[in-house]
Amino acid sequence: MSQIKFYALGGLGENGKNLYCVEIDHKIIVLDAGLKHPSGDLLGVDAIVPDISYLESRTADIVGVFLSHAHDKNIGALPMLYATLHPHVWGTKFAIAVLKDMMKENKIEPEPDHLHVVDMNQALDFDGFQIVFYSTTHSIPESSGIGIMTPDGVIVYATDFTFDQNIGTFYSTEFHKLAQFREKGVLALLCESSGAGTIGHSTSDYKLIYAIRNTFAKAEGRIIVAMYSTEIAHIQRIIDESLKLNKRISIIGRKAQRLVDLAETMGYIQIPPDKLVNLKYLDETNNNEFTDVVFLVTGERHEPFYMLQRMCKGFDRLLKLNARDTVLMMCPPIIGTEKIAAKTYDALYRLEARVVKIDKKTLPPAHASMEDIKLMYSLLRPRYIIPINGEYRYQLSQYNLALDYGYDPDHVILADNGEVVTFRDGQVEWKHDTVMNGSIMVDGNYDSDVNDTVLKERELLSEDGFLLIVANIDARERVMFNQPEIVSRGFMYMKDNEEVVKRIEEIYTEITKKQFAARYIDWRVYKDSIRDEVARYLYKETKRKPVVIPVIIDTQSDKICKVI
């Protein structure tokens, strides 16, 4: 009797953080390990990654991690996962190259034989099953889907794909492998849902090409194109259209944008050497006013907007924008970048530069629309469909799409993160267990987890600032050496609030005398009393709640007592 389980530690009911597991007779296959970018209200959080505690408890059962492509939401959490579990990892040449670069950046040294570049023409043989990679069409080179060949049928992992055929060599779909999966019989299709609400086919880039050519033709001065560094196919499109007009290319911050630099080094971004311009820093003799150059401003998330703002204000070392420039914005705002995008547009319009915005409808979609998903159903004829990779509304859209296509509700499975779908002898058991799952908020590096308390304190700091109370005492002799020094940041201007400052000093003195009168100084009570009484007084007077931080220094013992 065979048993296959499917569960997700991320990626269901959310955009990003993809981490899916297929368990075959207790052997765990991990499909991707991605991150999710935070929204603007998660102050100071750099990324959100899956909680892998369940996998930690079953390290010995993990066969390996198999990567679909090199976007953050699919491989961004892998440095953390590798540092904890040390699994073997398989992926395409580009995905493994990007992963190695990420590990280097995070100072993680993988074992020499743990990272494997797959041969797309050969199956990977394991005890009881095989794994086959097949090329898919996406916005990054060497994107792939994964087929898991089991005795009960093939499980196909189809994340982030379209069927657009007007695209280069590194982005084509291997239809013949999909046909081979169908011949063997597909048990379950794990199909992406991000575009399941979009009517029609994922269109090709003819609208984008028209917009680019029209913009370039009307440009009178320099041409600056802002775009995300993860959209390698779009970057190559801009390069191709520039070369047709006999223009040269300059990629701003090429070395800093590691993904773009890596893609160019490996040949996935192709620029004739004589057409690539390395700019010199601005000075009295050089203003980089080249009208025969297309300047590509690339970066992740907020970076293109941030760089353009610097160029508008004259802070950038390579470009200073002016009213004669044409700025082509090919980076529609995404979650967490709405505010900085709005400020950037305001700065560009204030400068009176010509701004051309390319919206999401004009950019070729990178995710399967309704007709693409139905074509995948037709090619594979899966017994079961499990919508993955998308917020719940998109999963539900695919659920309804599958019903309209002709599937009955028992063969389309809507699951949540942590919910276990069990196949026994090729049939679904409707008794769903759950495994531990959740999110870890990363601040700076993968060793730190930002909890709700820290986020609340950051919210208070951003809204009401903080007040620092620094004082020196001699705890042995019970002596106060001076009145406390009071420092305010983001709360109030000290010189205009002398009465408030005086009252804070009085509160400090009163509480200190009470502590001195006791037999022993209880440092925790001492600092908590100062913090609570000052906070209570400030709220009464100002209706604001700054973070109050008492710092009491015992000069005899060099002891510092503080609370944040």
Which key terms come to mind for this protein?
3 domains; 564 residues; Rossmann fold; Metallo-beta-lactamase, Chain A; Ubiquitin-like (UB roll); 15 helices; alpha/beta; 8-stranded mixed beta sheet; 6-stranded mixed beta sheet
Walk me through this protein's architecture.
The chain is an alpha/beta fold and 564 residues long. The chain folds into three domains: 3-200 and 364-442, Metallo-beta-lactamase, Chain A; 206-357, Rossmann fold (3-Layer(aba) Sandwich); 452-562, Ubiquitin-like (UB roll). Helix content is 31%, strand content 24%. It is built from 15 helices and 26 strands. The strands form five sheets. It has an eight-stranded mixed sheet with strand order 7-6-5-3-2-1-19-20. Helix 4 packs across helix 8 (258-265) and helix 11 crosses helix 12. The radius of gyration is 29 Å and the shape is globular. 42% of the residues are buried.
Tell me which CATH architecture of the largest domain applies here: 4-Layer Sandwich
Beta-strand content bin: 15-25%
Q: In order across it, which strands form the biggest sheet?
A: 7-6-5-3-2-1-19-20
Query: What is the CATH third-level topology name of the largest domain?
Result: Metallo-beta-lactamase, Chain A
* Overall domain count: 3
SS-derived structural category: alpha/beta
How many DSSP helices?
15
Helix percent band:
25-40%
What is the CATH class designation of the largest domain? Alpha Beta
Q: Please name the fourth-level CATH homologous superfamily of the largest domain.
A: Ribonuclease Z/Hydroxyacylglutathione hydrolase-like
For the termini, the CA-CA separation is 58 Å
**Shape call:** globular
Major sheet size, sense and barrel closure: 8 strands, mixed
State mean pLDDT (0 to 100 scale): 88
